[in-house]
Amino acid sequence: MSKKRVTAVDRVRAELDGLFADTDRDLGEVLEEVARLWVRLVLQSALEAEVTEFLGRERYARGERARAGHRNGYSPLTVKTTAGPVRLERPKVRGTLETFSSRLLGKHVTGTNALESLVISGWVRGLSDRDIEAALREALGPDATVSRSTVSRICETIKEQFAAWRTRDLSDIELDYLFVDASHFKMHDGARSEPVLVAYGITTTGNPVFLHLDGVSAESTDACVAFLEDMVARGLDSPVLTVSDGAPGLCAALDQVFPAARRQRCLIHRARNCIAKVAEIDQDAVRADFWEIFDLDDTFSAGDVAVAEARRRAEQFAATWGRQYPGAVACVTDGFEQLAAHLHF
Q1: What is the pTM assigned to this prediction?
Q2: How buried is 274 (Cβ within 10 angstroms: 0-12 exposed, 13-18 middle, 19+ buried)?
Q3: Which of 106, 188, 100, 92 is nearest to 142 (CA)?
Q4: What is the pLDDT at residue 227?
Q5: 273 and 255, same structural domain?
Q6: Which of 98, 109, 120, 151 lies at a CB distance of 3.0 to 4.6 Å from 105, suitable for a disulfide?
């Protein structure tokens, strides 16, 4: 018996699974690509769901109510979304008396962001299928919407995938470094921005891994502790180093949940704080001197030797800029141990 063909949705999922295995790419670029791939997965799932509804059966399934016809590959399509251009594969259907045409994209649509907004924000906010259907109809018009059953199928599929991902076992992951940060998003019009915590790390074999994602009402210590303890409960052991910005609640939570780990203050956040206290004419020079403190070459052994050299350079930084920009110098000297924690490794 021949193997079933890989669907376009499966191909997108495979790209998501393999994205973090590429250790040669910048982690920030990887996370941006994750966002684009999720948008692509949502839209591709919608197109596949439309075909399923049109034929009256799932792929390879047969039934009394099924419409005559069959899936016959894909044709390429690029749509413009809020995450940038997204490449899709429009399903082709053959052997039917009625021509299949996507009600979501129509025959010539190249721009859409309604479905991604609907799914990504709608199901997170707990909207009903009826509310989501109404929102899509309002965005695309009554002739370009998808049915309630299609909306329901898309939402349920993504809910199930996300639920499985955020409750998966983490006991087989051995971390060296754990990064935790929060981004703020407006979940609905007129509402205040709410934080979404994200955790990712570098394993002992040097591979990046996306660990956890969850919305919280505030970056309080209790909320951050619960976020971190969720990963511990699923088997995640303590890393040797944690990395975060200076948010008090997050810092306190990291110290509480992973007391054996050193805590690194994010140098990029701290550099921005430092430069913000400097006149524009001197910003390039101060920025260069800031990074000179921590960019040590291999002649300095990791550990006490490297930390001592960084401290010497920090003292030189203070001597050079202390009179003009005491606030910028304080960004380096206050909490220096957390800024130089990574030099122990």
Answers
A1: 0.60
A2: buried
A3: 106
A4: 95
A5: no
A6: 109
